[in-house]
Amino acid sequence: MSEDRLFEQLKREVDLLGRALGKAIRTLSGQRVFELEEEVRELTKALRQSYSEATRQQLLSIVRGLSLAEAENMIRAFSTYFHLVNLAEERHRVRVNREREKKSTPQAPRGESFLALVGQLKRQGLSYEQAVDVLSRLRLHLTFTAHPTETRRRTQRYHISEIEKLLDAAEREGPEDSAQENHAEAPPLIADANSQLDARVALLWGTSELRKSRPSVEDEVKGGLFYTTYTLWQAIPRLVDGLESALEAHYGLRPDLSPPLVFRSWIGGDRDGNPNVVPEVTSWAQNYARETALRKFVEDVDGLIRDLSLSEERITISRELRLALEDHARRLALPERFQGEPYRQFGMGLRYKLRALLGEQTGPGYSSTHEFIGDLRKAEASLNQLGLKEISRVSVRPLRLNAEAFGLELVSLDLREESRALTEAVAELLKTAGVHEHYVGLEPLQREALLTQELATARPLAPVGYRPQTKALQTALEALRNWRARGAHVVSMTHHPSDLLEVLLLAREVGLYRPGRALPFDVVPLFETLGDLENAPEVVARLLDNPVFMAHVQGRGGLEVMIGYSDSNKDAGFLAANWALYRAQEAITATAKSRGVQVYYFHGRGTSTARGGGTAGRAIASLPPGTVGSRMRLTEQGEALADRYAHPDLAYRNLEQMLYHTALASARDLYGQAEPLREAWREAMTRAARRSTEVYRELLLRPGFFEFYEQLTPIREIGALNIASRPVYRSGRVREIKDLRAIPWVMSWTQVRLLIPGWYGLAEGLEEIPLSLRREMFAQWPFFATTLDSAAIALAKADLGIAREYLRLVEPSLAERFFPSIARAFEKTRAILEETFQNTLLFNHPVLARQTELRNPYVDPISLVQVELLERYRRTPPEAPERKGLERALMLSLLGIAAGLRNAG
Description:
Blueprint: H1 3-29, H2 31-49, H3 53-64, H4 68-102, H5 114-123, H6 128-137, E1 139-145, H7 154-173, H8 193-205, H9 217-225, H10 228-251, E2 261-265, H11 279-307, H12 319-331, H13 342-357, H14 369-385, H15 389-406, E3 412-418, H16 419-432, H17 444-454, H18 471-482, E4 486-492, H19 498-509, E5 522-527, H20 530-545, H21 547-556, E6 559-564, H22 566-572, H23 574-593, E7 599-604, H24 616-621, E8 631-637, H25 638-645, H26 648-671, H27 679-701, H28 705-712, H29 715-718, H30 742-751, H31 762-766, H32 771-780, H33 782-797, H34 800-805, H35 812-837, H36 846-875, H37 883-901
Helix pairs in contact: 1-2, 1-4, 1-8, 2-3, 2-36, 4-36, 4-37, 5-10, 5-26, 6-26, 7-8, 9-11, 10-15, 10-26, 11-13, 11-15, 11-18, 12-13, 14-15, 16-18, 16-19, 17-19, 20-23, 22-23, 23-27, 32-33, 36-37
């Protein structure tokens, strides 16, 4: 089927869903609400097609005349429409992906596919053994984090999922049969497919979008890990099979690969600035993940028991499996009904040991994931020896591959804490033991020397029975004691080597550290601000020159370093932050290499372009040569999880694209010889970044800017929105940008359609680079191209016309002082990017360009209503009875714009 016909199918589904929503609105909210929504929709579409001040005034007059109930219903109508359109677009992506995959061949592979990857490796001269080596070593660690960017309630997601099932069923029946009655499968009282769809859309319309309270960390854990045993569980075996098939297609030989993906989580272990992540929550989070994994493995083993009904009357099993069965029989009570059916008996042994870990069965459980994988390999080998390789491949192997990817813990849980909290905890320990009275007052080098000396021994500092006096020490020690699913201990706001040595000292207190040995987990510095990124190579050098920390690094097989995209952007602006991240990776890698240490990078990327967002694959391809190696970590946050992993096919394609670019970068670092960066490019970027930072900081430091920002954007109102367990502000009420968290900073600018963090200062920076050189860099340097491409996406999502509507919230003197210069900068940045591209902003993203054009008329009404609500809300006294209703409607507008732009921040 052609992609034009697939697009027609998308339009039919959008029309079907739109009509169902219209029916729901009329039924539950009345004809007046429906007619009002239709009138506003027509006016906004007309305004987009041909601007008319009269049309604008007519539209604003309607919005200003809305009652509170009408305003809320207006927002809900357009927001719900976006949720349904987002679903239809996801389904369209799935259909397009499947169609393109059908046409892919080794000679003409689909772009960014495994066939294309292996073909590229072969063209680069890699032998079969070398290609297998690259893919066998490759490990991409995806780390789920809880940030306020998934704005939908789980109840909404459930209804949307049910709507998708109905659309799937209708698509299978075909357009002619989709409306036919199917009494056998239909729920009671709902006979045909259209009625079922209408009913489910009505349920969605009738469901509250707002959470009754701020979500707990437990809620975030459940939401974040949902995709592991849903779509990702299906994707892992397919990915491995896809890689092996691609190697076979190009080289004629098929290897036995392990999954190239590892799954980790911060949710429940990230304490930085979140007082709700207490040690008990950390313990609960890892227990919940483990139980989820075990129950999923039991479910899959039950499938093996059902399917592997092979009888000893027909087969002879291997000696190894016979011995394993005898071992199970001695220790476990196997059911008699499976006598003579060895694979079912073996499966029951697996089931007993898994359920023992759940506390549902007496007897011994698995001591490790390795033991469980070993049992599965025995079953595979036995079936293979019988010549039943296909049965082994389709039944046992997928279970074993998921065991290798997820393990019995499902995800390794990271701990993250801010360096100041660790310093406070260590200070109490040192004072209690009489080592030093005022550790906090020491200079960094003095702290480093003291800790190095102290860590030469194994003695704990606190006396037996000592109860911590500070919350910092109590939390640090209890979290380490409760931590079983150990990932890494990340130290945010790392400034000095002592920040990491403090983790070793705290670990020693709970028996996890021995002098001269490695901890059982990585200790990871997180460099976030521009200053910390610039100082990072020196900090790493001092860490690796420290004998205590070097012994730990050598024992761990390398050093993991995390670089943060959010705070560096907020601190220095878009262009300078990206260049600082690039240079830091280059310098840290060179520093570690000179000391014989392998560095593994952990990229703290967000979803917005201002926070490292954009196409993950292209971002990986643009990393400095020599910095990828065979292992890399990425964060997967909030709405990115829903966007990338809501459907098995989308999960597969997203992971395939990321692995394509990661594997090519890994092959380059392992077997290739990348050309050094041209000095002219380096000098040009340095000049551009310096100038860009000057312009960006001049705006933020200009007197009155913070007041302008708070009046223009809904930042204060975002703080009241129940979308995350983490507070918006770092410490109470603030009057400076630096005390605001990066995510709400970006989210607030996104709401008013300016997206300043994603482009401001870029034009002035690029002006420092002559046009011919700029175009050369764009054409030949992946990093530069990706950076400008990300800025173009931010500009394309911005809209000066809508942003101007928010100026009525701002004191006229402040509005006049700041907005005209911002508007000039916007137009200037657009012009200089198009000059560099020699094309339109989104020439490289035709689908996004089309989506943006189609979505804007539907986002605009929510924005206009939001302006009206903000004005009413801010002039209404806190004690006024209408205040609560205004807050509710305002919160809905924040969610609606996020849904419309498919990006909260």
